[in-house]
Design goal:
Helicase, Ruva Protein, domain 3; homodimer; alpha/beta; Dna Topoisomerase Vi A Subunit, Chain: A, domain 2
Chain lengths: 199, 199
């Protein structure tokens, strides 16, 4: 039995399909949208369609972009000799926020995951290799996630890129800053130990 | 500094305004929407506007409705002599799901909360009194939330309704079914004790 009208039920179902939104949140959001002034609801609806219409992927690095080439790829001040390879556009944002990287990016579009049916051919390795063959790149930073899929992707990429004589590095694993040694899991602690550096 | 294009930033900001959605979830949802086929994004946008255009409040009980009168108010099989008074339309759904009530509803649109500037005049008490003066109602169930605002609203309503000779009852407070006595807070436990019934 549905307790809502078809229109509201339809919105709730669609909201349920969004990442991190369960049935309870979807219901709460739908009722909130119903309580909004019509023009605010229309603005939200419009901004969803706008994103689909105006935002696309950078032709070079596949980061999100409103133009043919993204702001980072067209920024002349950035180092073109280092490319940081990430899984998703949100990883670009995370690294940009850290302010610790001034090179360029390459967004693979995911990680190798046989269980999800994602092999290397589904990722943007061909495009990465084409960029590298263009020359001028001396280092690739593998900034895929520190989980099984991300590690596999980093290792695969290292094998692919090394024959070109380009250095491949991997971002460090270890204890999060501000974290507590006592609460760290043993794998992270092991990685932190292995990756120890002289002070 | 914004890391996203204006269009995407705009969508993220709007999503951030939704209940329960923080900046991280908003970013995740926006990027997910970007990855959807255009027609799916358009469908979501359309269903938001549809809800605003098609769904309104029932003229009798102020529950959400697609017609002039909601499905519950127009259901002839339901008991018209008992009205369950709730704060919000979502409370109607919650009670309907329990299957424990076969009367009709009245949605106040909130609870009395001086701290939020909500007094009795902001709630649908006038409309409730008009329904009751129409006759045929023998009991009002105060099903406002079991918190300070909900209790105050129930007490206010009891004072308002009693002069009409109509019985006002309050839903029971007590331990949640499946809960654990050990973990119950003392106020709930006190209420459970006060409300004990003979077996």
């Amino acid at each position: 039995m549905t307790y809502y009208s078809g229109t509201l039920e339809n919105l709730i179902e669609r909201l349920c399909g969004l990442p991190g939104i369960g049935p309870k949140s979807a219901q709460r959001i739908a009722l909130y949208l119903l309580s909004l002034p019509r023009d605010e609801a229309v603005e939200l609806a419009k901004s969803i369609v706008d994103v689909k219409d105006r935002v696309r992927f950078c032709a070079t690095c596949f980061n999100i972009s409103e133009g043919e080439v993204c702001g980072i790829c067209s920024d002349e001040r950035r180092d073109t000799s280092v490319i940081c390879v990430v899984e998703e556009p949100r990883d670009v944002i995370a690294i940009e926020r850290s302010g610790a990287f001034r090179g360029r990016y390459h967004v693979l579009g995911g990680a190798i995951s046989p269980i999800d049916g994602v092999g290397p051919d589904e990722l943007r390795f061909t495009e990465l290799m084409a960029r590298l063959r263009g020359g001028g790149v001396s280092e690739i930073v593998a900034a895929t996630n520190p989980n099984a899929e991300g590690e596999a992707t980093a290792l695969y990429m290292a094998q692919l890129v090394r024959p070109l004589g380009i250095k491949v590095t991997r971002i460090a694993s270890g204890l999060p800053v501000g974290g507590d040694l006592e609460y760290a899991d043993e794998i992270t602690l092991g990685r932190a130990m292995e990756g120890r550096q002289e002070l």
